[in-house]
UniProtKB/TrEMBL annotation:
Its main location: cytoplasm. One of its GO terms (molecular function) is ATP binding. It comes from the Bacteria. Tetramer of two alpha and two beta subunits. GO terms for cellular component: cytoplasm. It comes from Lachnospira eligens (strain ATCC 27750 / DSM 3376 / VPI C15-48 / C15-B4). It is found in: Cytoplasm. Residues 77-104 form a coiled coil. Belongs to the class-II aminoacyl-tRNA synthetase family. Phe-tRNA synthetase alpha subunit type 1 subfamily. This is Phenylalanine--tRNA ligase alpha subunit. Mg(2+) binds at E266. HAMAP family: Phe_tRNA_synth_alpha1. NCBIfam families: pheS. The gene is pheS. Its EC number is 6.1.1.20.
Amino acid sequence: MIKSERSMEAIRMKERLEAIRERALAQINETDSLDKLNDIRVAFLGKKGELTEVLKGMKEVAPEDRPKVGQIVNETRQAIEEVLDKAKTELAAKKRELQLKSEVIDVTLPSKRDELGHKHPNTLALEEIQKIFIGMGYEVVDGPEVEYDYYNFEALNIPANHPAKDEQDTFYINDKIVLRTQTSPVQARVMEKGKLPIRMISPGRVYRADEVDATHSPCFHQVEGLVIDKGITFADLKGTLAEFAKELFGPDTKVKFRPHHFPFTEPSAEMDVSCFKCGGKGCRFCKGEGWIEILGCGMVHPHVFELCGIDKEEYTGFAFGVGLERVALLKYEIDDMRLLYENDIRFIKQF
């Protein structure tokens, strides 16, 4: 009785395998997707697929029938795999054909051009300034924009109660850290190292609490310079800046110095250049004065030397600072500073 039941189990398994084969082939023939084809493979041939479930019932088959049933299982698997592989090849070919049709390249169409940017007026002005001073033997030095109050003020002869500290409307992070209001702190850091002589410029971004208008911004750029050596005089300062002005604005440019006050220099001055539009005769560009204010300068204050550890009896020096935006506005005849920050490529491409 048991043998008869096991023989019947073998027959039932053969029938199941035939049904599985027919269903698998029917589903393969009906599918039109490679993803669906993979789902069919998993459903019938995977570790938890229908053929695997059939094999788990082999223990119910009579021992003498197991080889035959196993052979049928393998034949079924092979038949399904062959049809799957064939269908996969055909579907992949159809997909590739559709892709080729949809991605046809018309070689007669004009090619796409890469849109290149353009150097900003500030960048152009800075590169020209750096080129001039590097040609004079200066080095370009960078420094932190988030600076200690000490380097931004105290090391430059601006103590806590100095009125200049209020005039600059500083952005404070806390009572000891500020957004630098000038690039002079870089000069203080270089002086502190004590490697003399010094010939440097320090360009960079600075911050002051100014209202935005045609000539002001809370974030702008400065280029400050410093020279320290034995025997440096105001004549060296005048000669250096006169040469700088001629290189920047033209060989006929003249300069004049007006007394001024800066805490970190003594004596101090503001430098004007002759109007490069009218040659000093007076025009709309220079407001009829023939001169244009361009920068502040002076001899380094002896107390700054003391604060930075430099012997004021042996060394002297001069410093100067120019607003980069001011140079760009003058040189390229831009009448509104805000245009520099709008990044309109139509505006920038003019320079």
